[in-house]
Amino acid sequence: MVWDEMIVWTFMFLLAGAASADVKYPEPVCAVEGSTVTLPCSFTPLKSFTQDGKEVQLKILRVRWCVNHLICQGSTPSVFDSRSIITNSRYQYLGDLKGNCTLKIRDIQMIDNTTFRFRMEANYNKGHYTGMSGVRVTVTEAPQMRITSSHDAAQLSQGQTVTLHCTAVHCASHLPEVTWFKDGHPHPQSGPTLQLSPLTAKDSGNYTCALKKNKKTPSPPYTVRVKEEEEKKDAGVGGKQPLIVGVVFGILLPLLTLILVLFIIRRKRSAAAVGGEVDERHLDNIDNNILRLAEQQGGEPRQEAAEDISYVSLQLRHNSRSRPVVKEVDTVLYSSVANRD
Fold first, then answer.
1. Minimum mean pLDDT among 189-203, 258-272, 279-293: which range?
2. Which residue, among 158, 60, 159, has the nearest Cα to 100 in the 3D structure?
3. Is the peptide bond between 198 and the residue preceding it cis, with omega within 30 degrees of 0?
C-alpha cells in the first residue's frame, strides 16, 4: 500500500514538472457576481536539464489555466489555452510565455466559484509544470453592502477631504459597478469609492451605496455632518439683518431728507409771507404818523408831505428788506419835519 502511494505521487511529480519550476499565486479572492477579477500570477520555468551528459535548453511553448483539476494536463478543460483557437471572452490572459501568468475574469459567475490553476508546457516533458496549490476564488451573489470612511464622521469640518468606501460585508476585495445615493437621490459619482473634497455644508447628508446590477441589498445610511454647518446657518441668518437694515436705511434716508427739505422751504415761504404783511402794516403806520404831523402844523406843507410820503411808499415797495426800509423812512420823515421848520 505504501509503495502504491509513492508511485502515484512520483507520477504526479513528473507530470507537474521539475522541482526548480514554480508558480506564485495571489491570496484567495472573493468577488461579487458580475464583477471583474484580476488574478496576478507569475511563474518561473525550468531553464534546462541534463540528458546523456549534455545540457538541454528548455523553452515554454504552451500555457493553460484550468479549473477543477489538480494537474491540469491532457484533455482537462481549460478556461484559457494558448494553443486553442476557441476562447471564452470572459477570460483574458494578460501574461506571456516567459514569466507572467496573470488572468483576468470579466463578469464573474457562480461557476467561477472554484480553484484556478496554471500550467506551463515546454519543448520537453522535463519542462512541464503545474502550480497545484492554485488560487481559490469565492463568488457571492447578493452581498450586504456597507460604507466605511477615511475619517471619523464626528470630526469632519469644512475644507477637509473625506473618502467613502463601499464594500461587501463578507466580500470586500472585488465589486462590480457601484452606485451612490445621497438622501435617497442618485449621486453623480460612481465606483467603489466616493471622494468629497473640499467638504462644504452641502455635503452633509445620508449616503448609501448599492451594486448597479443588484440594488436589493444597499448599505445602511452613512451620515456625514460638517461641524460648521450650524454656525454657517446662524451666520447666514444674522448676515441678513445688516442687509435688511441697509436697504431700509437706504430708502428712508432720502425720503426723510426730502421731507425735511420740503418742510424748510415751506417754513421760509410762510415766513416771507408773514414778513410782507408786517412790512405793509408798518408802512401804513408810518404814513398815518406823517399825516398827523402835517395836519398839526397845518397849511400847504400838507401837500408837500403827501408827496414825500408817496416817495417813501415807492421806495419801500421797491426794497423788500424790512431793515433798510425803516432807515429810509426815518430819513424821509426827518427831512419832512425839517422842511417845515
1. 279-293
2. 60
3. yes
CB 154 within 8 A of CB 47: no
The cell numbers describing 190, all together, are 460612481
pLDDT of 313 higher than 50: no
* Residue 207, amino acid: Y
Strands (E), the chain: 22-24, 29-32, 37-39, 42-44, 48-51, 54-57, 60-67, 78-81, 91-93, 103-105, 115-122, 129-130, 135-140, 145-149, 162-168, 178-182, 185-190, 193-196, 205-211, 222-224
Residue keyed to cell 480553484: 115
φ, ψ dihedrals at 162, nearest 5°? -130, 140
Three cell numbers written together for 243 = 442687509
The per-residue pLDDT of the chain, averaged, comes to 76
Q: Each residue of 41-97: pLDDT tens digit? A: 999 999 999 999 999 999 999 999 999 888 888 888 899 999 998 889 999 999 999
Residue 193's identity, in one-letter code, is T
Cell of 7: 508511485
Q: Burial of 245 by CB count in 10 Å (0-12 exposed, 13-18 middle, 19+ buried)?
A: exposed
Q: Examine the pLDDT at 303 and tell me if it is beyond 70.
A: no
